Amino acid sequence: xSDMRLIVAGAGGRMGRALxxxxxxxxxxxxxxxxxxxxxELLGKDxxxxxxxxxxxxxxSADLWALxxxxxxxxxxxxxxxxxxxxxxxxxxxxxHVIGTTGLSSSDDAVIKSVTNRAVVVQSGNMSLGVNLLAxxxxxxxxxxxxxxxxxxxxxxxxMKIDAPSGTALMLGQAAATGxxxxxxxxxxxxxxGITGARQPGxxxxxxxxxxxxxxxxxxxxxGPFERLTLSHHAEDRxxxxxxxxxxxxxxxxxxxxxxxxxxxxxxxDI
Length: 271
Description:
The protein is of the alpha/beta class and 271 residues long. It has helices spanning 14-25, 47-50, 64-67, 80-93, 106-114, 129-144, 167-180, 184-187, 239-252, 262-265; strands at 4-9, 29-35, 60-61, 73-76, 96-99, 120-123, 150-157, 188-190, 204-210, 217-224, 227-234, 258-260.
């Protein structure tokens, strides 16, 4: 099979540049296009140079329809509005759409799901192998421990992150809720301030820290009578997310239409 031709959305951003480097460092894929927001001062710049690589002749463009003419997939770690704008074009062109964008609303997710009867979408709050293994373990532990063990999730990210809790924290919270057999929306507690009263049994708590250049730290604690168990993951470089996204795209190439997750990519869906 020939190399998979990939477009990087948000190619001028930190994650977009990491994705460009990941493609250059890997076999089986080539950069077919670099997408950037309309009006960006980076439009027309060389994607390779922006990523700290030699010039590759792929310049940043705001026209996904034109870029996607000869592409097989798109790696999309942007913002909700941009991702939703890309969904219809990606589906119409038959692109594999790998979505790592966080902060998506339930209505955004519904738009994404609406195209998966005719398009291949891989969507995850985190593309890391370690994080997805962590989610599988959290689900098992939550199932094994009853409500005498309280669940608290703490995440830390760099100062520039614009959404909270992180998509990864919510993914871990969903894993815990699934393990408990409850709906996360009904048991989610995001931040505490003032006289809050005692903690309610079954709550799944979230706390978000922001500062510095942290790529992403997540911990899930199960706090019970006289003991506590903490499971954690620490990201050291955003390249791990880029390589995970590339793995997802290559895995999804040629799959039948549907909505997939990194658990599917890694063979963890039945855990």
